[in-house]
Specification:
Layout (H helix, E strand, L loop, with lengths): L3 H31 L13 H4 L12 H5 L48 E5 L8 E4 L5 E3 L13 H12 L4 H7 L4 H22 L7 E8 L3 H4 L5 H8 L5 E6 L6 E7 L3 H14 L7 E4 L4 H9 L1 E4 L14 E4 L4 E10 L2 E11 L2 H8 L9 H13 L17 H15 L7 E7 L8 E4 L3 H4 L9 H6 L12
Parallel strand pairs: 4-7, 7-10
Antiparallel strand pairs: 1-2, 2-3, 4-5, 5-6, 8-9, 10-11, 12-13
The chain binds zinc ion.
């Protein structure tokens, strides 16, 4: 029970505060209501801060990733050597057009499809072919430079184990199913992830998109799930934690432009935007949709900004300093969600750069409004497919749960191996199936196919056996 004097003191303070507030609020209301002068016709917008033009930055935000890599990925050492046409021997039976010579002393090293590679057969009855380079006379295996090279484990077992990892089984679970040591599975995963990252870099470039949805999700939601802390509190507390998964997706083709793990900071947002820029075609400035994370704005400005000399406001005095402003074609909108007790109570849209009309003009042909629904659907998929994100967190080494590696693997698996229902195409002629089921009416397509990066659905085995060339190859034709 509260002692009475204290209670009355509190009551008094409360009443005084109430009076003050009423005094502040009322007269202004009456003044506006009673004003007789005609006011300029203005849309009754309450959220005036939405309409305030962006003042610009006085400094160009630095990007750590840009500072590290000067060039855009690996560059070819020069022009490719001339194509070789075989003049002797039998016509070639085995297609070697995707192979390249790995030998450093060879003029044809790293170049694909120049006719210098021939297939020899399987030495000692092994599972892999031996390939021969007619330029340098060197020999190498068809698995050279892939995760399957030099492995004593049966190739199928390795492919299945990696498939299980890509489907969301944890490292320990995979170790149990395939009866191998967990450290072996981790070693496989590390190697496969490196390969997957190179694979993504090789294929994902010069992509043209009209919009990009960017989001970050927290990997380990256990504290939130058990209700110990609220979502907002958890985000506040866990911002520095390195367990955020950042994803950028093109909602049209469903292509996952980048998938990365890290903290929830400006530096990380900049790294993600940097990766998106690497994937997009030069000069492609899409509409960006993000959540309300404040540093997303600065991260976008890092790569989509320019210096602008503002006009003088006064006749006298020094000219205003130039400001770092968004590119005129940059469109950026935020979807701000208010969550209370794990329930969505309000969704607010905020056009940050550009106008609502231009943003809607981009979205209208797709039949949608400002939203981040696609990426939120993806978040769920990632939770199901990346064990380190989902409920089963298998930590092998302290602080290293294989999150980065699983993300790199899933990035390729999602883009190239998993057909996405929303980008499938109807077949002109329904194909009869072998069983008693109904005829096949759809052509399955992956996001990478929808984006025009590849022409078929890749199997994981194909991905693992693909020898990624060390630099981009000239387009065929
Ligand atoms: Zn060679």
């Amino acid at each position: 029970m509260m002692p009475d004097p204290l209670f009355y003191q509190l009551l008094l303070v409360g009443l005084v505060w109430l009076c003050l507030m009423l005094h502040v609020v009322w007269p202004s209301d009456r003044a506006t209501a009673g004003r007789t002068t005609p006011r300029p016709a203005k849309a009754p917008r309450k959220r005036s801060h939405d309409l305030k033009p962006f003042p610009g930055l006085t400094r160009k935000p630095p990007c750590a990733a840009c500072a590290q890599t000067h060039a855009h990925g690996p560059q070819p050492p020069g022009c490719p050597p001339p194509r070789l046409v075989p003049t002797r021997g039998r016509p070639r039976q085995v297609n070697t057009s995707s192979h390249f010579c790995p030998h450093a002393n060879c003029d044809y090293q790293g170049w694909v499809g120049l006719g210098n590679i021939s297939a020899n057969g399987h030495p000692n009855g092994g599972p892999w072919r031996q390939l021969h380079c007619s330029s340098c006379g060197g020999y190498f295996q068809e698995t050279h430079g892939t995760p399957l090279h030099g492995k004593r484990v049966a190739p199928e077992k390795l492919v299945w184990a990696v498939g299980a990892l890509a489907e969301g089984l944890g490292i320990r679970a995979v170790a149990r199913v395939f009866e191998v040591d967990p450290n072996t599975v981790l070693a496989w995963l590390v190697e496969v992830a490196e390969h997957a990252a190179a694979f993504s870099q090789y294929f994902l470039h010069d992509v043209r998109v009209t919009q990009v949805q960017l989001d970050e999700l927290f990997a380990l939601l256990s504290a939130v799930k058990t209700g110990e802390v609220s979502d907002a509190e958890a985000i506040q507390r866990l911002s520095r934690s390195p367990h955020w998964v950042w994803a950028a997706i093109d909602p049209v083709t469903k292509l996952l432009l980048t998938l990365d793990g890290g903290d929830r900071t400006l530096a990380m947002a900049q790294r993600v935007v940097h990766q998106v820029v690497q994937v997009l075609a030069p000069g492609c400035v899409p509409l960006f949709l993000t959540d309300g994370f404040k540093d997303s704005l600065t991260a976008l400005l890092t790569h989509y900004g320019q210096w602008v000399q503002l006009p003088r406001r006064h006749d006298k005095g020094p000219a205003p300093k130039p400001r770092w402003m968004p590119l005129p074609q940059l469109l950026y909108a935020q979807v701000i969600k208010t969550v209370r007790r794990r329930r969505l109570v309000r969704v607010r849209h905020r056009v940050v750069f550009g106008t609502l009309e231009t943003v809607n003009a981009v979205l209208a042909p797709l039949g949608c409004q400002i939203n981040t629904a696609f990426i939120e659907r993806l978040n769920l998929t990632i939770r199901q497919h990346v064990a380190a994100v989902g409920r089963r967190v298998s930590t092998l080494c302290k602080g290293e749960d294989g999150l980065q590696q699983q993300l790199a693997l899933y990035h390729v698996y999602y883009n190239f191996c998993l057909p996405h229902a929303s980008v499938r195409q109807p077949l002109l002629q329904p194909e009869a199936t072998h069983g008693t089921g109904s005829a096949k009416r759809w052509q399955p397509r992956t996001p990478a196919m929808a984006a025009g990066l590849t022409d078929h659905v890749w199997t994981l085995r194909e991905v693992l056996l693909f020898r990624v060339p060390p630099w981009p190859q000239p387009a065929e034709g």
